[in-house]
Amino acid sequence: MYDWSQYRTLVGQRQLVCLARAVLRKNRILIIDEATANVDPRTDELIQKTIRDKFRECTVLTIAHRLNTIVDSDRILVLDAGKIHAYDEPYTLLQDPTNFFIKWCSRRANRRQQLF
Questions:
Q1: What is the domain partition of the chain in residue ranges?
Q2: Side-chain half-sphere of 67: how many Cα atoms within 13 Å?
Q3: Which residues form the ABC transporter domain (predicted)?
Q4: Angstrom distance (rounded) from CA 73 to CA 88
Q5: Relative to the CA of 92, which of 24, 100, 103, 113 has its CA 20 to 30 Å away?
Q6: What is the pTM of this model?
């Protein structure tokens, strides 16, 4: 049987190399797809900090499934089945209990509580 943990490590390392290349190139636009999906929590924190620090003056488009990855973004666009369900600043989205973003956050929180 294949050891998938090794693959996960390789993907995580590849993500770190790509991020380092973007930093060195001083890219003005960064598009990342769940950049921290294949790394441990400590590396996740390092990647998030690096993105916030090194790309502060850049356009960063983040495709994410984790709230902590996007909660400090300037704007959040929530898509489901190809339809736009919410678009605004995180604070504004969190103020409206009827919007899709709040429902998504609640589902994530409930799922997390069930795991622990």
A1: 1-66, 74-115
A2: 15
A3: 12-37
A4: 10
A5: 113
A6: 0.69
